[in-house]
Structure formats: C-alpha cells, structure tokens
Amino acid sequence: MRATDPRIVLGLHRSRHERRLLTGALDLGVTELDTSSNYLGFLSHEVLARTSADLLPRFRISTKVGYFRTPDGAEHSLDPVRLRTAVEQVTRDLGREPDLVFLHNPEHSLEEAASHSREALADACAALDDTAMRGLCGAWGVASWDPSPLPDLIDASTPKPSVIMVRAGLLVGTRTLAAADALSSAWGLDDSMLWGMSPFGGSTNAPLWDRADPRVFLQDGDGLTRVQAAFRAAYYLPQVSAVAVGTDKPAHLGELIDALAYEVDGRVIREYRSLLQGG
C-alpha cells in the first residue's frame, strides 16, 4: 500500500527560519515550504525574504492567512476584506506570489458566527478564490486543526479549494479522522488534494514513541526507527499525498525522506481505524 508520490513539505511552525535549514532541504530534494503569516511572531515572511531571498524561487511556497496581529495580541478573522489584504501583504513581504495560500483554521471564528456560519465560511473561501483569480497566489486551500465543524457548512455555493490540510498520524483521534474524510468528500477532493500536518503530535520525544512501535503498520519496517515508521504511517491516517513536518535539523529531514521508500500495510491501517471507531 503506497500513496501516489508521497511528498514531504518542510513546515516552519516552530522553526528558527535559519538559512542552513532551507539549503539543507534543497540538498535533500525537498522543494516545498510551508509557513504562515503568524509564524515567528508574524515575521516569518519578512525573515525568509531577508535571509533567503535567493533561495525562495527554488521552493513551492505555501502559507496561511486568518490570524492578525493587534495591540492586544493575535486575533482570528474570516472577514473577506482582511483576508484579501493579508494575501496582498504576503506578496509584499515575501517578494513574490506564494504558490498556495491556506485559509487558516476557519473553525476558530465559526463559533462566533454561529447564526451565519455557512455564509461566513463561503465568503472567506470566496475571498481567497478571488485572490487566486487575480494572480496574487497560485492556488488556495483550507488548513484546519479541527475540521469537525466544516463538512456540514459546505454546499454548492462554497468555493472549492485546491488543497485541504489536516492533522495526520497515529495521535489523531477518530473524530478528526472522520471529519477529514467528510470534508474531502463534501468538496469532492481526491487523496492527491489532501495534505497532512503535525505527524508526531508536536514532538518526536513524547514518551508514547518509546512505548508503542509504529513499525507494525509497515510491510517490512525493521530497517526504520519508530519515529520514521510513525511518519510513514501518517500518510494513511487519513490518506494524504503530502505531509508538512517541522524540524531545524536537515539530518532529521533526511531520515524522514528515507522512510518514504517503505510500504505501509493497508490491512493493519484498516484494522487500526476500525478499532478507533469501536468496530
């Protein structure tokens, strides 16, 4: 069982944004870079442009909008005008148009918009769709930490994204896995249009990785570490074509690339999901 051309996206969520990480990624053949307008204290785009402007054309860059800096800290908004302005700012700060812009965690504001949440989501998606049509980005998508509220809000009036990104991996609960499947079905997206993120639930040093052995999810995983096996299995929980993973160590990135050569055992994955569902 193997995802079609499984890809690694270098995520900058907790990264120090050091130039050596980008050069190391390129040396390893990793040419997709994911960041967000609010990463690195809302300075991610500016720091990338200042320290690595010559490297950025060699990457396919995805970023996210939805969180905004205010005097009192960060706030989230689905306001279409603010979202369009944010995408315009991304281009100025990066010095180039991003290849992909995600609507970042739309669920964060949907509770406040309870009485008109369907319209709020549709309008936010339309704003990003408009930025892509205007050439401010190559395409747009939705990145959601908790997609469970989203599928029921999507109808024929909701613009369709090119990509959705959700949590993936062995630490993702059945509710989130089911919501990710429902969200991709609601928009009619296939597996090639799904990305995963946070494959280790935040840390490869969590005690769980000493107690559990993810190599059981692979057809022949004896040659891998438990962390490598957990990463490989993440491409099927839920099934995605790419996984965004953060690190400040190119060597760690290389170890994860090595894991892509191994095959996942589809039967074990199905049994695991059945157990999660109580079946």
CATH superfamily: NADP-dependent oxidoreductase domain
Stretches with pLDDT under 50, minimum 5 residues: none
Strand content: 15-25%
CATH class group: Alpha Beta
Biggest pleated-sheet summary: 8 strands, parallel, barrel
Mean pLDDT: 93
Based on CA atoms alone, the radius of gyration comes out at: 18 Å
Structural class: alpha/beta
Helix percentage range: 25-40%
CA-based shape: globular
How far apart, in Å, are the first and last alpha carbons?
A: 22 Å
The CATH architecture designation is Alpha-Beta Barrel
Q: Could you say how many structural domains there are in total?
A: 1
Total helices: the number is 11
Strand order of the largest sheet: 1-2-3-6-7-8-9-10
- The fold-level CATH name is TIM Barrel
Number of strands: 10
SSE arrangement, N to C: EHEHHEEEHEHHEEHEHHEHH
Task: Offer a concise description of the structure.
The protein is built from eleven helices and ten strands.
Description:
This protein has 279 residues and is α/β, with parallel strands linked by helices. It has one domain (7-276): NADP-dependent oxidoreductase domain (TIM Barrel), CATH 3.20.20.100. The protein is built from eleven helices and ten strands. It has helices spanning 19-27, 39-42, 44-52, 80-94, 107-110, 117-133, 174-187, 208-211, 226-233, 250-259, 266-276; strands spanning 7-11, 32-34, 60-65, 67-70, 73-76, 100-104, 139-144, 163-167, 194-197, 242-246. The strands form two sheets. It has an eight-stranded parallel beta barrel with strand order 1-2-3-6-7-8-9-10, surrounded by four helices. A two-stranded antiparallel sheet has the order 4-5. Helix 4 packs parallel to helix 6 and helix 9 (226-233) crosses helix 10 (250-259). The longest helix is centred in the middle third of the chain and has 17 residues, at 117-133. The protein is globular. The protein starts with 6 loop residues before the first strand and ends with a helix.
